[in-house]
Amino acid sequence: MDTLEDLNRKLDGAKDIKSVVKAMKAMAAANISQYEAAVASLGDYYHTVTLGIKAYLTAEKIQTFIEKPVYRKEDNQTICVIVFGSDLGLVGQFNDLISGYVQQTLGGVAGKKELWVIGERVQALLEDSGLNVTKSYSVPGSIDAVTPLIQNILIEIEAAREKEHIHQFYVFHNQPKVGSGCEPVVQRLLPLDQKWMQEIINIPWPTNNIPEVAGNPETTLTALLSAYLFVSTFKACTESLAAENASRLEAMQRAEKSITDMLEALSKKFQSLRQSMIDEELFDVVSGFEALKKERH
User: Fold this and answer.
1) Domain carrying residue 206
2) For the chain, what is the domain count?
3) What is the pTM of this model?
4) How many CB atoms lie within 10 A of CB 17?
5) What is the DSSP letter of 74?
């Protein structure tokens, strides 16, 4: 049975944990705002880049995408999968959600799979499932650290295309849902094919003016495609960070409620035990007084 000292120690421990949870909750809430602002601005930038590509295709009157022939059999082709997760815990089902989605999606895809993983937690889950993780990166701790990470990944992609002849690249990440929670999504980053080009062509042009390409068309297209790959990967990273902090905020809210309930239960138990001990002491005093009173008589 717990003593008053035991209950008092438990109460102090629960209060300390609650203060830590409050601090993490405030940090997650602060991080969400900056990542959500980045996602919103990236949406506008992404739209501008795609309009630029559409302008090029319209000006050059390109309607068909000519793919380079691939001489390898499909079963022998390597598919590179880039997965965004988290380094830290206390994020609910965030990593389990994206890990399960990757396993489910890749289960029906032919060819060899090579995974580049951002985040230790999701890396452990993917490795436990038997998937081949060949590269790992740390999750950026701030919005300023996202750009160097994305630049490094794009350099690695270019090297893999040239040296290892990997042509298919997919990006998996969680994105925030409207209201609360997050959901896993996948985007085919490369190769850029006819389907991708048709989606670009179908984007409505905002004015009635016919777009023109200023300068060298080839240089312009290279710059636009580089910007497209950068903003697509950057957007995936920031959406993952926003979803991670949203999941952490929800987890901290649940933890705070549980700790509050625990504190109430411990406080009631402490007060009840204290009252019982006071009652016992009063009973002993009264009994002693009655005994002394009888002896005097």
Assistant:
1) 28-250
2) 1
3) 0.79
4) 16
5) G
